[in-house]
């Protein structure tokens, strides 16, 4: 029991030190998962810029992690040039044009994605296989079997 309380106290002390190291301009992640930039640090509160020109006051205890500049820029701005192997990432198109085989220039036929009219789905003999009398079992005498 003594070891458990000691490790919990050690974790709390590390978290407090991390929060005390925050300076204006540092990137942080809140315990709710929001990424922001520190603008001002008070005794118990922190002023965060959550978007350009949008500021919010948070309790210091709400800061989950203080991030390195490279990690913050990679997560928030999508900057990958600072990491190793960034050229190995696959290129993903912004639209679905690569999902369709063929393009407009080669004259290939495009798939017909339009919805067909309801008359195309109807049976040829004009009869419907669904019931119109509202009876589930098809008995005309109200469901009783008289012998």
Task: Lay out the secondary structure.
Layout: H1 2-20, E1 27-30, E2 35-41, E3 45-51, E4 54-59, E5 63-67, H2 69-76, H3 118-121
Antiparallel strand pairs: 1-2, 1-5, 2-3, 3-4
Brief digest:
The model has no long low-confidence stretch (mean pLDDT 74). It contains three helices and five strands, in the order αβββββαα. Helix content is 21%, strand content 20%.
Descriptive notes:
The protein is of the alpha+beta class and 147 residues long. It contains 3 helices and 5 strands; from the N terminus they run αβββββαα. Strands 4-3-2-1-5 form a 5-stranded antiparallel sheet. The longest helix is centred in the first third of the chain and has 19 residues, at 2-20. It is elongated, with a radius of gyration of 32 Å. The protein starts with a helix and ends in a 26-residue tail after the last helix. 5% of the residues are buried.
């Amino acid at each position: 029991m003594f070891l458990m309380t000691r490790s919990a106290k050690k974790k709390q002390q590390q978290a407090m030190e991390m929060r005390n190291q925050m300076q204006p301009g540092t990137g942080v992640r809140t315990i709710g998962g929001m990424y922001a930039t520190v603008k001002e640090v008070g005794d118990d509160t922190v002023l965060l810029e959550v978007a350009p020109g949008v500021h919010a006051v948070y309790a210091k205890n709400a800061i989950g992690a203080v991030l390195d500049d490279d990690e913050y820029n990679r997560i928030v701005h999508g900057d990958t040039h600072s990491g190793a192997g960034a050229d190995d990432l696959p290129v993903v198109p912004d639209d679905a044009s690569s999902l369709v085989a063929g393009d407009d220039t080669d004259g290939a036929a495009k798939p017909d994605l339009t919805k067909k009219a309801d008359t195309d789905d109807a049976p040829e003999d004009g009869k419907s296989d669904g019931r119109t009398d509202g009876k589930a079992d098809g008995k005309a005498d109200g469901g009783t079997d008289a012998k």
